[in-house]
Design goal:
The chain has 618 residues and is of the alpha/beta class. Helices cover 25% and strands 22% of the residues. Pfam families: Fn3-like, Glyco_hydro_3, Glyco_hydro_3_C.
């Protein structure tokens, strides 16, 4: 595992709060202990309550205690950047960051968001989300990083803890999760965030095994999962309105009061200035880069892409057009560049696809070869396929969506020559898709989920209706979701997890070497070479298979690297495997434990395009 990407978890928070760490954690805790001892009872009570809900720059604040130099802390949402604030950038969604499979871009995105928080003077970044996607209909999956625990752990911060996998009934449902599934699948990203030094964890609205997450001592108590087992040193904040009869602040006020100022004293707070312009040219360029790198080329029949400048382009579909504004729950009046709700972003600027395409070419249809570009997969697509039938026309489909979309009704239509899954690319939506369409960027995005042939192929679904207002949602699929389930049940998806095409770019994998320095430390090394005619980026993916008796899915992602390769060039890729990568939950010891036996190693370009295999024994 790279030491670079996990640190992103800490960077997002620290950069949002401060330009530098001013004290060690132990020194900050000692100062906090001294400060807390001087608090009156009224002051202690005031610290565990929020104030100023949606007040200007902040979606919430804490009370200030000026006599002890405890400032009011300003919190703002923003898995895609600051929300309800002007003069900020509209970043690509978390699902797009995951689709890059590029740790450097993930980290740069986190740094840039943190810089804008710091510039504005918002102290706490409430996000991004690290809820591993369980079901394809999950309403907030776009904020997070896909279906895989490892991929999510490489890219995320610390909300919502835990069992928050759907929006329907999110205030009342009980996520019924067995300990093994909870620990191995849904806690895994939080474990990596805690290891990286994350300062704040937000608990979720839902119940977990019958008890609300924000008042569940087994989850957030001093000896519970988060603080006891994972060793989390920071503080827990509830989601807005997620506290109930015996909430965290009332149940454990002494613990919270010490943890909160410790975190504050650990960093240097910045002052608030909501009117300063936080946008920079570097952030704009980064957003465009991530948008292009996250675009997944699903189909490219007869090399329909990249386009050439002499082609005539007809652009159809509402999604290609401008967006008059993106309010809290109204982002569909034009191109879909960001999701809705509390995870949305205040777009100060937006380049819709049609504007960028018009700037690239004269967007009219003339006699001879032409291209129809559609950004809608409903009536507009049907009309475009009809128009293309029998004509010298290439039909290219660009999909902006929050998650997987079933494509079977039209994906095999010969008139559909190319398909790009562009996700939610942020404010540079049009510019980034132009880069991919015209080959300015060689697409390297990979799916952070599988696209099935039928919705019924997925093993888990959200509960959208129930006569019981406080339903139980049983995670009966356990560890087996998405590609893990498809592999175990031999279900063939349309496009598998980790899939994506490039232009005139093919790779050769060779020289797999596996070395072991101990039973818990292994290294996988290989060589990858560009055998194509264009430069591009190969996403090398490492999966491992546990011994059959372990009861794990057939293969699990345990490493990935984005490797830039010029034609003919080769590169050595190295993946370290450490103890937690080969561990399973043991109910006997109440923790993760290395499972003995022979492990399989799979290296390839997707979860099903495996190029090299090997193994090691523990």
């Amino acid at each position: 595992m790279s030491s670079l990407a996990p640190f992103w978890c800490l960077l997002v928070f620290v950069l949002a709060v401060s330009s530098q760490v001013t004290r060690s954690w132990d020194a900050a805790k000692a100062l906090a202990s001294s400060t807390v001892s001087a608090l009156t009872l009224r002051e202690k009570v005031s610290l565990v309550h929020g104030v100023g809900n949606f007040n200007g720059l902040c979606v919430g604040n804490t009370y200030a205690i000026s006599r002890l130099n405890i400032p009011s802390i300003c919190m703002n949402d923003g898995p895609a950047g600051l929300r309800e604030v002007d003069l900020v950038s509209g970043f690509p969604a978390g699902i797009n960051a995951a689709a890059t499979w590029n740790k450097a871009l993930m980290q740069q995105r986190g740094e840039a968001i943190g810089e804008e928080f710091r510039t504005k003077g918002a102290h706490v970044f409430l996000g991004p989300a690290m809820d591993v996607t369980r079901a394809p209909e999950a309403g907030r999956q776009w904020e997070s990083f896909g279906v895989d625990s490892y991929l999510t752990g490489e890219a995320a911060c610390a909300k919502h803890f835990i069992g928050n996998q759907q929006e329907s009934f999110r205030y009342s449902e009980s996520s019924v999760i067995d300990q093994r599934t909870l620990q191995e699948k849904y806690v895994y990203p939080f474990r990596r965030a805690v290891d990286a030094g994350v300062a704040c964890v937000m608990c979720s609205y839902n119940r977990v095994n019958g008890t609300y997450a924000c008042e569940n001592p087994a989850l957030i108590g001093e000896t519970g999962l988060l603080k006891g087992q994972l060793g989390f040193k920071g503080y827990v904040v509830s989601d807005w309105g997620a506290t109930h009869g015996s909430a965290i602040g009332q149940q454990m006020p002494g613990d919270w009061i010490l943890r909160f100022p410790t975190t504050n004293f650990n960093v240097q707070s910045s002052s608030s200035n909501s009117h300063v312009n936080a946008r920079t040219a570097a952030h704009t360029a980064l957003i465009r880069t991530i948008g292009g790198a996250s675009a997944v080329l699903l189909k490219n029949l007869n090399n329909a892409l990249p386009l050439v400048s002499s082609e005539n382009i007809a652009v159809v579909g509402l999604d290609a057009g401008p967006n008059a504004g993106c309010t809290l729950n109204a982002c569909d009046a034009g191109t879909l560049s960001v999701g809705w709700g509390s995870g949305t972003n205040s777009l100060a600027y937006l380049v819709p696809p049609v504007t960028a395409i018009q700037a690239q070419v004269n967007a009219t249809i003339a006699a001879g070869h032409a291209t129809i570009l559609t950004t809608s997969i409903s009536n507009d697509l049907a009309a475009a396929m009809t128009a293309a039938d029998g004509a010298d026309v290439a039909l290219i489909v660009v999909i902006h969506s929050v998650g997987p979309v079933i494509l079977e009704a039209w994906i095999d239509n010969p008139n559909v020559t190319a398909v790009i899954n562009a996700g939610l690319p942020g404010e540079q939506s049009g510019s980034s898709i132009v880069d991919v369409l015209w080959g300015i960027v060689n697409p390297s995005g990979r799916l952070p989920y599988s696209i099935a042939k039928s919705a019924s192929d997925y093993p888990a679904h959200t509960l959208s209706f129930d006569v019981n207002l406080f339903p139980d949602i049983t995670y009966s699929e356990g560890l087996f979701t998405d590609y893990m389930y498809f592999d175990a049940q031999n279900v063939t998806p349309r496009y598998e997890f980790g899939y994506g095409l490039s232009y005139s770019f093919s790779t050769i994998y060779s020289n797999l070497v596996i070395t072991s320095s101990s039973s818990t430390s292994h290294t996988v090394t290989l060589v990858v070479q560009n055998a194509g005619t264009r430069a591009g980026t190969e996403i090398v993916q490492l999966y491992i298979g546990f011994p059959p008796a372990a009861g794990e899915p057939p293969k699990l992602l345990r490493g990935f690297e984005a490797v830039d390769l010029a034609p003919g060039v080769q590169s050595i890729v190295t993946f370290p495997l450490v103890e937690k990568d080969i561990s399973v939950w043991s109910s006997d010891v109440g923790n993760l434990q290395v499972y003995p036996g022979t492990f399989a190693v799979y290296v390839g370009s997707s979860s099903r395009d495996i190029r090299l295999t090997g193994g090691f024994t523990v």
